[in-house]
Write a structure and sequence with these properties.
Number of domains: 1
Strand content: 5-15%
Distance between the termini: 34 Å
Bound molecules: flavin mononucleotide
CATH architecture: 3-Layer(aba) Sandwich
Helix content: 40-55%
Radius of gyration: 19 Å
Number of strands: 4
Strand order of the largest sheet: 1-2-4-3
CATH class: Alpha Beta
Length: 211
Amino acid sequence: MSLLHKLEWRYATKKFDPTKEVPEEQVTELLKAMNLSASSYGLQPYKFIVVKDKNLQEQLVDASYGQEKIANASHVIVIAAKTSVGEDDIRAYINQTAFLRKQQIEELEDQKSRIMSSVSSWSEEKKFSWAQEQCYIVLGTLLLAAADAKIDACPMGGFEPEKYNHMLGLKEHGLHATVIAAIGYRSIDDDYQHAIKSRRDLDDIVELRYS
Ligand SMILES: Cc1cc2nc3c(=O)[nH]c(=O)nc-3n(C[C@H](O)[C@H](O)[C@H](O)COP(=O)(O)O)c2cc1C
């Protein structure tokens, strides 16, 4: 099946079959795909919290404007942005890169200075919104990886981040729930799976400016 066919197949699943669980090896594959997402400067200013706990999922429904799919899903993946990004994060990234690429730290000095001068010129608000933007790129990767593996997913912004932060103890770890995805397998009576995709015409959304 081509990627386009897989993207036609996927949809924001409204109702999961609560009896079906995504095997842990496949969840790990999705997490590996998310970890391979592009991120600005490669800094990955986020963390993924995976919830598979029916009690907690039931409680999270209330913090998700009553969206029952949180409870019916096999797993809920919370993509949480770091609330502050600083020199330590940049140093850790450079050290990790040097280690993995078997380079001397000094060889990466220019790269480090470039990132440091850029990031340190940003306000705390800008850093936080930048970190949240990176979370949405991860969400896109997750949706692609899930479609590729024939795992259903619903991307979700309809939840109360402060309640998630509290219930998952994120704030004390310098994290903020930014966007979530419920994953699992579609229920046969989720009518949305039969709906024709509603998208703008390519001609309307694309402007080609070729020479
Ligand atoms: C950032 C984001 C947040 C979303 N939040 C919700 C949500 O809270 N609940 C929901 O049912 N769908 C949510 N959706 C799904 C969209 O409504 C859906 O992707 C869109 O209507 C296109 O339909 P399709 O994904 O089925 O093709 C969200 C999608 C995105 C990308």
